[in-house]
Amino acid sequence: MGSNKKKTGTIIQALGSVFKVLSDGGEIIECHYRGKFRIAGDGNFFPVVGDYVDLISSPDGCLIDKIYPRKNKISRLKVGSRKPKEQVIIANLELCVIISSIDEPPFKPRLVDRMIVSALKGGLTPIIVLNKCDLKCNFNLEFWQKLYEGIGYKFIPTSAITGMGIDTLKNILAGKISVFVGHSGVGKSSLLNKIHPGLGIVTKQVSKATNKGRHSTTSITMHPIDNDAFVADTPGLRELGLWQIDKRQLGWYFEEFRPFNERCKFRNCLHKDEPDCGIKAAVNEKLISDVRYESYMRILESLPDKLY
């Protein structure tokens, strides 16, 4: 890179303090971030995959000099922080592909619902993928597919072994920038390899002792795939603390609640213990799924009364 010439591009991999940037000219450049980002203490100023950045050269090599405003992002409450702090996971996407499996590890609807809320909060369209549908187990696929499609979400049963649903998923990803999120072991990397065999992403088996996935992805990497699409593969998320959502806001991210909100007696109804609650009445009338309402209640208990 010339000493005085800036380049711009998109971060496609982040591993510690080292970043790979796909420049606008198609060159992949390895770089570091400037110290001002490291000490800023603000997630908005720490580079993440998907960020559009300016690069400059220095005696220490290539440096990220500027991060452009983000169109959207996936964030979570930073794990282990003494005070509430945002951890931006990835930025500037269109689709959030939430991947779970029917077994090995077992399907976790609460985590799926939490990830839907996170995607909607970040301004992304959630897509639900249920992987490992080749496994023989007692699982009511029709129930879950009907539930989520009834709310309005795309729900794609897949198998990285048999190829089930791969073409459907590939068509949805075409021309889009997407991120794959989900627990370890659900098959995110295996699905990516099936969609684009040339990627050769390393995969690992689920531990038989714990029935939990082992991390095969250790950094966030954005992969180019067919049809001018990019997909970011993320390490399995064991915790997803929702960022900047309090108890009174949560209901707006359960889209099937919206038609019944006006039936609530109280404007700030939490749909928990209040009398004359339109949401609870809709659950009793089978107009809202009780399993989604249970998810709502679980998430509600984990949220603060007011924002930080």
Summarize it:
The protein is an alpha/beta fold and 308 residues long.
Protein described:
- By secondary structure, the chain is α/β, with parallel strands linked by helices.
- The chain folds into 3 domains: 7-67, Beta Barrel (OB fold (Dihydrolipoamide Acetyltransferase, E2P)), CATH 2.40.50; 89-233, 3-Layer(aba) Sandwich (Rossmann fold); 247-301, Probable gtpase engc, domain 3 (Ribonucleotide Reductase Protein R1, domain 1), CATH 1.10.40.
- It has 8 helices and 13 strands.
- A 5-stranded mixed barrel has the order 1-2-3-5-4.
- Helix 2 crosses helix 8.
- The protein is globular and about 65 Å long.
- The termini are far apart.
Looking at this protein, list some descriptive labels.
308 residues; Ribonucleotide Reductase Protein R1, domain 1; 5-stranded mixed barrel; two-stranded antiparallel sheet; 3 domains; Rossmann fold; alpha/beta; OB fold (Dihydrolipoamide Acetyltransferase, E2P)
